[in-house]
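hiii so um. not sure if this is the right channel but i have a protein structure encoded as tokens and i wanna go backwards to a sequence. like what aa goes where. can anyone help
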């Protein structure tokens, strides 16, 4: 099969790593790579139709777990094989599926990828192949963030006798933020969406379901506090969220990769508030989450955005586009295989 592999540094004394990220030019289309085969009952071989390029993936530790790694996590395609055609498998040859290969494996930038049954679900009929590939990583991150905050997505209608729960989302117009806004709205929360520019993003975010939009520069002037804050930005924006989260019972959750230790770091700075749940997490993904997201999509209540499309042979360009080079726009950069 053909696949994009990350080739090692030409200088063995200076290998690529998160501290010395590989350039996009190290992403090379290789041929005659053996097709993996299911060797356990919970494994499924998928013929990939679409995958995505994710910003900053060349800075992730998992990318350098072994030489000639095949990047890529999001995927949509058809089932090519299951383990010995096991009748116990929830999938069969020819099934249309979408999902996310585990962070430790990836390998979706290829004609075929081996995944676990718990990492995929049947593709929503309402989504195109490109849209289906754009959902798993970003939407499941949003889904899991809300679950970590104790927000049930299976009971979207809030009881009338209870006070509405509020949520502040930073980076609301970004790849994860757009799903946070939609899913939080569906769960019955009052949604305040923060971004860098109301002029650019305000109308868009209100169309997604935000009750109110605010710019980062105005957050420090707000008197309102929020039961839940989900941050996708990090840095000074995340630091400023401590003054906005409900004392004693609120949750401050970040999915910004540079903020993995923000609770301890902010405690050292003296800005962490007592009684507030502080959490950084890396998305795990599950077939149950994918099924729920697929159901919401098929109900017409989940908008999916595709920014651009590239063939597998131009994966390096796709990565640069996803990392912000070559213009701006909304949505995921999709790679077609």
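sure thing!! here u go:
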């Amino acid at each position: 099969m053909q696949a994009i592999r990350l080739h090692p540094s030409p200088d063995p004394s200076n290998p690529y790593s998160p501290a010395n990220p590989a350039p996009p030019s190290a992403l090379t289309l290789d041929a005659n790579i053996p097709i993996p085969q299911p060797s356990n009952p919970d494994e499924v071989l998928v013929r990939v139709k679409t995958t995505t390029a994710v910003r900053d993936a060349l800075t992730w530790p998992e990318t350098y777990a072994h030489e000639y790694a095949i990047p890529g996590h999001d995927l949509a395609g058809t089932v090519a094989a299951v383990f010995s055609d096991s009748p116990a498998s929830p999938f069969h040859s020819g099934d249309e599926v979408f999902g996310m290969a585990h962070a430790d494996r990836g390998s979706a930038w290829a004609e075929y990828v081996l995944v676990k049954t718990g990492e995929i679900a049947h593709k929503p009929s309402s989504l195109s192949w490109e849209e289906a590939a754009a959902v798993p990583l970003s939407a499941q991150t949003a889904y899991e963030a809300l679950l970590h905050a104790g927000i049930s997505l299976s009971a979207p209608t809030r009881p009338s006798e209870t006070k509405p729960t509020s949520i502040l989302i930073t980076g609301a117009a970004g790849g994860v933020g757009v799903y946070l806004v939609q899913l939080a709205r569906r769960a019955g929360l009052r949604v305040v969406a923060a971004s860098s520019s109301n002029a650019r993003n305000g109308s868009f975010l209100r169309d997604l379901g935000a009750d109110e939009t605010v710019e980062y520069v105005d957050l420090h002037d707000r008197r309102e506090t929020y039961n839940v804050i989900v941050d996708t930005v990090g840095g000074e924006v995340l630091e400023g969220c401590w003054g906005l989260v409900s004392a004693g019972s609120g949750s401050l959750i970040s999915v910004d990769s540079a903020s993995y230790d923000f609770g301890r770091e902010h405690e050292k700075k003296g800005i962490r508030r007592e009684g507030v749940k502080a959490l950084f997490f890396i998305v795990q993904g599950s077939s149950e989450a994918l099924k729920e997201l697929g159901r919401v999509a098929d109900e017409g209540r989940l908008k999916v955005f595709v920014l651009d499309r590239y063939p597998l042979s131009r994966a390096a360009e796709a990565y640069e586009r996803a990392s912000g080079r070559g213009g701006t726009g909304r949505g995921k950069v999709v790679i077609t295989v």
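oh and The chain has two domains: 3-123+305-336, 141-280.
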